[in-house]
From TrEMBL:
Species per Swiss-Prot/TrEMBL record: bioreactor metagenome
Name of the protein described by the UniProt record: Protease HtpX
Enzyme superclass (EC): hydrolase
UniProt xrefs under Pfam families: Peptidase_M48 (PF01435)
Enzyme Commission number(s): 3.4.24.-
Length: 114
């Protein structure tokens, strides 16, 4: 648990450093807010973002957990405490200093023939 807590703190520090380097909260913050939008869309279609297995198929393996931008579904509350990443809403709260609404996803546009 201690190792996971240290890892989560490092994630917060990495987020803060990204904001500092880019001089913009909206870079990383915008990406994380779009992740929330994707989660909301999955909840609308499947009743729960955790039921949309297309979005996290195979990502529950411990070998790839450290590379994930967003958390995967948990079987228990204990697993949540063992996660190396903080939740997406908490990361957004820390970046902006308050809760932020999800951002709309860009529409996929097909280029017109020439």
């Amino acid at each position: 648990m201690l190792k996971a807590a240290v890892s989560r703190q490092r994630e917060y520090l990495a987020d803060a450093r990204a904001v500092q380097w880019t001089r913009s909260k909206d870079g990383l913050g915008g990406v994380l807010r779009k992740v929330l939008t994707q989660r909301e869309l999955a909840e609308q279609q499947y009743g729960s973002w955790q039921q949309d297995t297309r979005s996290h198929q195979g990502l529950d393996k411990r070998i790839v957990q450290h590379m994930l931008l967003a958390e995967t579904p948990h079987a228990s509350r204990l697993e949540h405490w063992l996660e190396s990443h903080p939740t997406v809403p908490e990361r957004i709260r820390r970046i902006y200093g308050r809760d932020m609404r999800p951002l709309p996803l860009p529409l996929n546009t097909v280029p017109q023939g020439r």
